[in-house]
Write a structure and sequence with these properties.
Largest sheet: none
Structural class: mainly alpha
Distance between the termini: 40 Å
Length: 86
Amino acid sequence: KQNAFAATPQTDVFSLGVILFELMTGRCPFPKRALREQDILPRPSAVNPDLPPDLDELFLQMCQFEAGKRPASMQEVVQKLQVVMR
């Protein structure tokens, strides 16, 4: 069994999702409190309506609490981002 606190490519994907949210909206997706699995992930377009809805879906995939539900690598994230930004 893998250590729950081990850094993996999916850990990096989650972190990049948070950074992208901040870059796209100017705010942290989880302000002023600890992140918990029961928290509802905000949609970036709810803060910045100029963002395409497909970008919301990518962010939500990147920031899934269960690592296995996130994109498996940064390469996969880049491929999905390229599709969204077309």
